[in-house]
Every structure is written in C-alpha cells, then in structure tokens.
Amino acid sequence: MPAATADLHSPTRTPSGIIKFTNCRLVRHKRLVEEDLWISSTTGKILHCQEAFYEHRASPDRTIDLGGRIVSPGFIDVQLNGGFGFDFSVAPEDTTTYAKGVARLNRQLIRTGVTAYLPTLTSQRSEVYHKVLPHLGPSGSRRNASDGAESLGTHCEGPFLNPLKKGIHDASLFLSAPSGFSSLSACYGAHNLLPPSGPIKCITFAPEIPGVLSCIPQLVDHGITVSLGHTDATFHEASAAISAGASMITHLFNAMRPLHHRDPGIFGLLGTTPGSPTTITTTTTSSSPGQAAKPFFGCIADGVHLHPTTVALAYSAHPSGFILVSDAMALMGLPDGTYDWTNGSRIRKEGMC
C-alpha cells in the first residue's frame, strides 16, 4: 500500500496543540465565572471554544481539571528586590555569576504566577549600578518562554532619598543632585538612562532632595517613570513633583510623611482632581507644565506593612491607580532563619514571605 494511503487510515491523530482547562473560574467583568478555557500551546493564545471547534477543527490534546481553581493573567510586579537567595543589589566580582543568578530567579519566579517584573535596586554605590544595570534591562526579543519571568527594565529605588524616611536603606549612601541631571548620570551611568536601550525604566525619588525636581521632565522625556518614595515631602512638594511629570508613589504610606489634617503629604495627591484649588502648577521645572493629577501608587497589602483598613482607604481614594507590589527580598522562597542584608544588618525571616 502506498505511504499516502496508509496515512489516511492511520489511527494516530495529528496533535492539535490545544489544551483545555475545565472546572475552573475565570475573571470576567470584575466577577468570577465558571467556564472552560481553551489555549493554543503553539501560539500561547487563548481560544474561544467555537474557534477551537470550527476554525481549528480539532479536539484538545489534553484536558486538565483545575478543581475549581481561579485562572488569571500573569502578575506584573513593579518592585521586586530579589528572591530565592538572589539579590539584585549585590554585585559579585564575576558578572557571569550575576547573569546566571538573574536567569535562575526568572525560572523560579514564574512558578509564583509573576510573568513580568521590574528588578529593583535599593540605594547603592555608583559602581554597583554601573556593574549590574547592563544585566537588568528589558528582556525584549531575547526572551524565550522557557526562560521564565521577564524583566521589563530596572526600578532604581534610591539613592536620592530622605534619611528621615530611610526604611531599610543604608542612609550613608544617599545623595542629592546639586548638578541636576548630570548628578543622576554620574550616579547611574549616562548610558543607562538613555532611551530606548537604557535599562532603567523607573526611579524612586524623594522630591524634596535638592536638585531632584529639575530632573523629572528630562527623565520623563527619556521614557522613565518617576515615582515618589522614602520621603518627608509636604503636599505642596509632592504636588510640584507630579506637575513636573512624576506619576507614581512607591509603597504608599510606608517610609513617608503620614497623613495629617493640615498637610496631607503625599497621600493627599489621591484626593486631587485636575483644576481643583489644591492643584499645583509649575512653569519653572517643566518645558510643558501641567496640573497635578492622581498618581498611580504601589501598595504592599500583606497584612504586615499596612492595616487592611488602610489598604481599603487607599483603594477607595483612587481604585484605578492601585498597584499591588510585593517588595520581595532575596529571602523570598528561603527557609526560615536569620540572614545578612545589604545595609550591613541581619534580618529574621519567618513564615510565608
């Protein structure tokens, strides 16, 4: 019998590349619905069941019962300091070792549901930024699905922060920016700030630090998100930074001036509306001045950093600006114990963190 004829009568079915998840819950229109999910393992795209039947004309290769679990899009974490024993802010002598550590973390991180993230560097010496930033840029076209989670670019949290709100940062490393943008270039490396190939995509500043405010418009022009954090800024100072182009707050409430009825500080930005009497405008720090608007804000809603009512208050003030962040450290995924931290202290880890 000719080979072509034999193939027509072969009992072996050609794989469709389709996986069907059943007995699962999906998020649709802000509620959970019980519905099957069809996915093409070839393209990675979600298929409608009609599309799977009528366009692909194939039954699934595998049907997986999820036992009522929730299926959601992959998480994006915009503040991740490390995990599974790897710290982005620790620069070894051998950069090859560092690159391997990043790759290993990516493969482990995907198991937590985080598919993309901003590797975050705490306040460090200038030479550390120059050494590690080239390894932390956006994964882009270099990424393969088997590599795990992907980098969206680096978040530099410091060192232009306020010592009064240092948190776990080493305040001896903090800087001001007396030469404006040139001070930033000297610290991070000018090539690391330049679009589109520069690895830095977000910088956390304390806006009251001398020289910082004038840098915001140029950073925004470079495609870098400016976030306010580790700050004792007044509402006026915070509003001026937003008017200059800052658009985010780093871990709201943590390491910043608390809410006060006479000066709401940074939290007061969540109560502003464009054109309101409280809006601050600027013509001296931006080539295209605007009005202060409600910024996005990170929130560590782990039940430890913030009381649940505080989280609810922030969400109610600005739901569309709310961003869950982990602010995870290298200790994430490690056994309970006491570990060294980059600022020279030791940290006790206990429980699921």
Mind explaining what this structure looks like?
The chain has 353 residues and is α/β, with parallel strands linked by helices. It folds into 2 domains: 16-71, Urease, subunit C, domain 1 (Roll); 75-346, Metal-dependent hydrolases (TIM Barrel, Alpha-Beta Barrel), CATH 3.20.20.140. It is 20% helix and 22% strand. It has 8 helices and 20 strands. Residues 1-9 and 277-290 have low confidence and may be disordered. It comes from Coniosporium tulheliwenetii. Its EC number is 3.5.1.25. This is N-acetyl-glucosamine-6-phosphate deacetylase.
Radius of gyration: 24 Å
Number of strands: 20
Number of domains: 2
Secondary-structure element order, as H and E? HEEEEEHEEEEEHEHEEHEHEHEEHEEE
Low-confidence stretches: 1-9, 277-290
What is the CATH architecture assignment of the largest domain? Alpha-Beta Barrel
Oligomeric form: single chain
Large-scale geometry: globular
In what range is the share of β-strand residues? Answer: 15-25%
Q: Label the structural class.
A: alpha/beta
Mean pLDDT: 87
CATH class of the largest domain: Alpha Beta
Portion of residues within helices: 10-25%
The main β sheet shows up as:
9 strands, parallel
Note the total helix count: 8
Instruction: Tell me the distance between the termini.
Output: 64 Å
Please, what is the CATH homologous superfamily of the largest domain?
Metal-dependent hydrolases
EC number: 3.5.1.25
Keywords: Hydrolase
Protein name: N-acetyl-glucosamine-6-phosphate deacetylase
Secondary structure blueprint with pairings:
Blueprint: H1 3-8, E1 18-22, E2 25-28, E3 31-34, E4 37-40, E5 46-47, H2 49-55, E6 62-65, E7 70-71, E8 75-80, E9 82-83, E10 86-87, H3 95-109, E11 114-121, H4 126-132, E12 150-151, E13 154-157, H5 181-188, E14 200-205, H6 216-221, E15 225-228, H7 235-244, E16 248-249, E17 296-299, H8 308-317, E18 322-324, E19 337-340, E20 346-349
Parallel strand pairs: 1-6, 2-7, 8-11, 11-12, 11-13, 13-14, 14-15, 15-16, 16-17, 17-18
Antiparallel strand pairs: 1-4, 2-3, 4-5, 9-10, 19-20
